[in-house]
């Protein structure tokens, strides 16, 4: 199919990486997903983190009077503060995987492959750190759910400080 395609019709988009933003929110607006923390496709994290953002922002804004500027600002800050380290780490991990697996110079690829095939390097770099990262995010979900249940028990008054 590629050979049959007119070269003038082939387009190439270079994947760009961007450093994490210092602030996702301004006023009553916030960024989520790739707008806040774009992630190269090399680890498949982008859609998952966008979904997580939707969950966490929903829980933080639950019960907030959206006409109360200070309450919305507090909720947005409470949403993004714990998300930033996680999303930055995942984006950096995807960037590193892209460099190792897709952008290694051709001369170094056999050496890379020999190391990855014959040593526990990938297990140490990825396998040993992934479970703790997952458990940390599950802990964040448990805390968000506990806050949400407390909110429901108070009849919808939202305390974004907890």
Automatic annotation (TrEMBL):
Keywords: Monooxygenase, Oxidoreductase. InterPro entries: FAD-bd, FAD-dep_Monooxygenase_BioMet, FAD/NAD-bd_sf. Residues 5-89 form the FAD-binding domain. It comes from the Bacteria. The keyword Oxidoreductase applies. One of its GO terms (molecular function) is monooxygenase activity. This is FAD-dependent monooxygenase. It comes from Streptomyces massasporeus. The lineage of its organism: Bacteria, Bacillati, Actinomycetota, Actinomycetes, Kitasatosporales.
């Amino acid at each position: 199919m590629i050979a049959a395609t007119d070269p003038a019709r082939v387009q190439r988009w270079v994947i760009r990486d961007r450093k994490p933003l210092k602030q996702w929110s301004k006023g009553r607006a916030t960024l989520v997903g790739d707008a806040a923390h774009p992630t190269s496709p090399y680890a498949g994290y982008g859609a998952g983190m966008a979904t997580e953002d939707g969950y966490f922002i929903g829980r933080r804004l639950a019960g907030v009077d959206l006409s109360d500027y200070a309450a919305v600002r507090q909720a947005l800050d409470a949403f993004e503060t714990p998300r930033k380290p996680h999303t930055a780490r995942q984006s950096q991990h995807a960037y590193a995987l892209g460099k190792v697996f897709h952008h290694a110079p051709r001369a170094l690829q056999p050496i890379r492959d020999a190391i990855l095939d014959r040593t526990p390097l990938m297990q140490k770099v990825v396998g040993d750190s992934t479970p703790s990262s997952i458990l940390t995010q599950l802990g964040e979900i448990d805390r968000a759910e506990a806050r949400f249940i407390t909110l429901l028990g108070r009849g919808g008054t939202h305390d974004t400080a907890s």
